[in-house]
Amino acid sequence: MKATDKQTGRTGHCAGHDGGEHADIIIVGGGPVGALAALRFAAAGRRVLLVEARAKDAPLTDARALALSWHSRTALAAAGAWPDDLPASVIDTVHVSQQGAFGRTRLDCADLKLPHLGVVVDYPALTLAINAQLEQAGVQVWWQTRVEAVNSLGCYASVKTSGVHGDISLTARLVVLAEGGALADSLPGIKRLVHDYQQCAVLAEVTTEQPPAGIAYERFSKQGPFALLPHGDHYMLVWTRSHDDAKALQQASDEQVMAELQQAFGERQGKVLAIGPRASFPLALRQVNRVSSGRVVLIGNAAQTMHPVAAQGLNLGLRDALGLADALDGISDPGDAAALAVYAASRKLDSHAVVGFTHGLIKLFDGDSTLVSALRGAGMSALDSVPPLRRAFARHLVFGL
Q1: Which of 205, 365, 374, 379 sits a CA distance of 20 to 30 A from 123?
Q2: Which has the closest alpha carbon to 288: 196, 177, 194?
Q3: Based on the domain organization, do 359 and 383 belong to the same domain?
Q4: Are 67 and 95 in contact (CB under 8 A)?
């Protein structure tokens, strides 16, 4: 590959162990998690190759609005991937409640002495900003390239690719999988826990009588939990529903969906005035038993995907990228087994705690008995009324464990 020496500015060819292309680190997956890792490694002087299946100029039609913690936003900004003019909506307060029962929790940025708790940004806007920074930072990206196989050997790892560059074998001292669950499943020692929630997340833009003003809502309704995230002058709705319900919401009239949402949400933001087209995607929990196998390490979606409740999935993945860059800082061989063991140990608590928390929320709020509702309400009220407990909870959501 062509690699730029950050000390000399020279560009040269690095021969691989088998005569093919070679890099210090190959990262598979050019989403926010893989890109942040690439930017951090490149800034540290590593020769990085980022491999991404989509075309660089492919139209971005992803309907998701991403809820990022302030910590995640700060990390992207530090890497140059969050320009000042990036359109985003701030979250200053998160209001958590349940339908038809007492108890609520209100988390506020003042509790943590932060400017904001988080931000909401459209996936296409963030992707364009990240792509621009990858180019500016001189990170080598192979667009329209798929990784067909990964193999870890004693001194290096190899990947087989196909795409616009042809069928090519690449080698690196470390391969980082930020996407590609099937690739990880082929590695020795890697097993994946899979739990199908038999649910979908339904997304739609919602207009309410009162503008968001920095308030996000997490509401546990009788039909399923939903979030309302500030999205400009509107809200982005993320509603967990059964597969049948999700299909019905997509086919129902706007008036029907607005009425159902109004009943589940109440009038905290006044009347629901409009709702946009609905999109949906299935939900499942996937988590690996370990995050490394030889000279291959897993971060982000390759390591875990989870339910969108509490909006922790992407934030956890970005902390994976930061943790890996920190663990390998100053290590001459990025595939060193001891260094990767340090990384795995450093991420274990955060990963298991967040996955367990989100999975537990779904189980906790799945029941609808009077006793269960009362216990949930008591828990939310206790959290809200004990400031040290509330601050600790908010800190874990923003910064992880």
Answers
A1: 365
A2: 194
A3: no
A4: no
